[in-house]
TrEMBL record:
Keywords: Dioxygenase, DNA damage, DNA repair, Iron, Magnesium, Metal-binding, Oxidoreductase. Its cofactor is Fe(2+). The keyword Transmembrane does not apply. GO terms for biological process: DNA alkylation repair. Gene3D superfamilies: Alpha-ketoglutarate-dependent dioxygenase AlkB-like. InterPro entries: AlkB-like, AlkB-like_sf, ALKBH3, Oxoglu/Fe-dep_dioxygenase_dom. SUPFAM superfamilies: Clavaminate synthase-like. The keyword Iron applies. Residues 109-208 form the Fe2OG dioxygenase domain. Transmembrane segments: none annotated. It comes from the Bacteria. GO terms for molecular function: catalytic activity, acting on DNA; demethylase activity; dioxygenase activity; hydrolase activity; metal ion binding; oxidoreductase activity, acting on paired donors, with incorporation or reduction of molecular oxygen. This is Alkylated DNA repair dioxygenase AlkB.
Length: 209
């Protein structure tokens, strides 16, 4: 029954919209097709994930990240950023299912996923690009969102003539970044000025040994 439902979902018309960013390849899907409602996915991930409150080193100083994180993946696929090394936890059944359907939809292979939990309006992510050598020269990163809507900002690394791009990441949406995106653009999430509920974000990646 579940397989039949998945076949029907992926036989339907799934349309990505291109995000207007020069020197980048970013596309957006309002609703990622999956046979579980968004709230159930959020609750299951929230409860099952082994969350960590990691420290990062910025300009020589150690800080607790303004969000919770978790790293899951294939054996040996550790991830290093900001002098923090994350070792993969074994895939849960739900994460494996999300990975499988992403790979079927996008025809891209992933071997790891970084989960971020934004607990409220004060949690955020500083501007950065996912350009670590372990991700390869032109990484494809698929970002799933569940829970409260947050705004992802894109800023070009060099060209001041290009305005900051704002993308609303609604619950159940999928953002795909490919090609030269990480080479040319930084992205981040600011604090919210209004009270905001929790949001879960999953960024599926392929770590190259």
């Amino acid at each position: 029954m579940e397989k039949d439902l998945m076949d029907d979902l992926f036989a339907s018309d799934v349309r990505f919209s291109k995000i207007d960013l020069e020197e980048a390849d970013v596309s957006f899907l309002v609703k990622f097709p999956f046979p579980m409602n968004d709230q159930s996915i959020f609750e299951k991930l929230y409860k099952e994930t082994i969350w960590q409150h990691e420290k990062v080193v910025v300009w020589g100083k150690s800080h607790l990240q303004p969000r919770l994180t978790a790293w899951y993946g294939d054996p040996g696929r550790s991830y290093t950023y900001s002098n923090t090394v994350m070792y993969p936890l074994p895939w849960t059944n739900l994460l494996l299912s999300l990975r499988r359907e992403l790979e079927n939809l996008l025809e891209i292979n992933f071997n790891s996923v970084l989960l971020n939990l934004y607990r409220n309006q004060d949690d955020r992510m500083g501007f950065h690009s996912d350009n670590e050598p372990s991700l390869g020269p032109e990484p494809a990163i698929a970002s799933l969102s569940y829970g409260a809507t947050r705004t992802l900002l894109f800023k070009h690394k060099r060209r001041r003539d290009l305005p900051t791009k704002h993308v609303k990441l609604t619950s159940g949406s999928l953002l795909l970044m490919k090609g030269d995106t990480q080479r040319n653009w930084n992205h981040g999430i600011n604090k919210e000025t209004q009270i905001c509920g929790p949001r879960l974000n999953l960024t599926f990646r392929n770590i190259v040994k």
